[in-house]
Amino acid sequence: MIVRNTLCKRTIIAYCIFFFTVLLIWKYHEKSIKIEEEEDTLKVIISSSLVNTTNSTTTIIEENEKQTNSILSINENRLDYWLINNSKTLGINLTAIIASKRHGQYLVYVCHENCGGWGDRLRGIMSTFMLSLMLDRNFRIEITHPCNLTHFLRPNLYNWAQPIDGLIVVDPITHHRRFNLTRKMLITTANARKEILSNVSQILHNNRSINSIWSEDVLYWATNKDYFYQLSNNMFYRKKFKSYGIMTKYNIKLEILFPLFYEILFRPVDKIQQHTLQFRLKPKKNPIICAQIRTGKIFQRMNHRNILLISVV
């Protein structure tokens, strides 16, 4: 009886020692990760990388300036603010972001029916764009409801409207068109089932090989969710984020990256830019806070909050 009690005590003591050892190792591991991120954040950015990024940005902007020189001549270089003057996005590798990703691998944000308002869609677009960088997939946008997005916005630095290469091929014998790439559709809008939303969220948060779960060549995704929290906390992809110059998970937030991503992705079509330009050239007593574009008859007015309202057909 004494021997049995002694063995029980030793077993309990051994389990306690094991538990506290695991706890100490985990705490040390968590602390080391945080220290590593802080060190990366404080690293001095090499001047040559800034020069390369600025040169590539200037080259791309110069190509766009050829299309609308009269409009861009009075516009500030908004992109430089987010790449150089903003501390939270300082040092982001623009060249790596806009570069082509793995051949034949795509992530497409889709909206062919009711996907919520423009704010909901932007939230989904930014989340899927961030995920495409994380998974090294080429990003595309397909919005046709209630109208085609390209009627109002066009690609700026990242060509999200480019057709998917090799998606459909024509049989040389039958001349029938067929899909050449494997495809998968994911829907995580407000109407999706809770178990699907939970499963997708867990995959993005914890899985070390997301591409092995969604291995199809073309991944279509309809969503209005903000997945930045899940992506930032997936420790298996931190090196990938660092390759884009995002050195700490605390900067992987929608409110931080949204302005930069919007500048990279979108630019108003010439018709809208011309209307806003005409208004900007008019003398005004108060500055414009923001501009709201609506469809309908052409008119321009300022409301009581100095918000420019422009309607275009």
Explain what you see:
- This protein is of the alpha/beta class and 313 residues long.
- 47% of the residues lie in helices and 17% in strands.
- The protein folds into three domains: 1-42; 47-267, no CATH class; 270-312, no CATH class.
- The strands form four sheets. Strands 2-1-7-6 form a four-stranded parallel sheet, with helices on one face. Strands 9-11-10 form a three-stranded mixed sheet, with helices on one face.
- Strand 1 (106-111), helix 6 (118-135) and strand 2 (138-143) form a beta-alpha-beta unit.
- The longest helix has 41 residues, at 2-42.
- It is globular, with a radius of gyration of 25 Å.
- The N and C termini lie far apart (92 Å).
- Residues 38-54 and 63-76 have low confidence and may be disordered.
Itemize the secondary structure elements and their pairings:
Elements: H1 2-42, H2 47-65, H3 69-72, H4 78-85, H5 94-98, E1 106-111, H6 118-135, E2 138-143, E3 153-155, E4 168-170, E5 177-179, E6 183-188, H7 194-206, H8 210-213, E7 218-223, H9 228-232, H10 238-243, H11 254-265, E8 266-268, H12 270-281, E9 290-295, E10 299-302, E11 307-312
Parallel strand pairs: 1-2, 1-7, 6-7, 9-11
Antiparallel strand pairs: 3-8, 4-5, 10-11
Helix pairs in contact: 4-11, 6-11
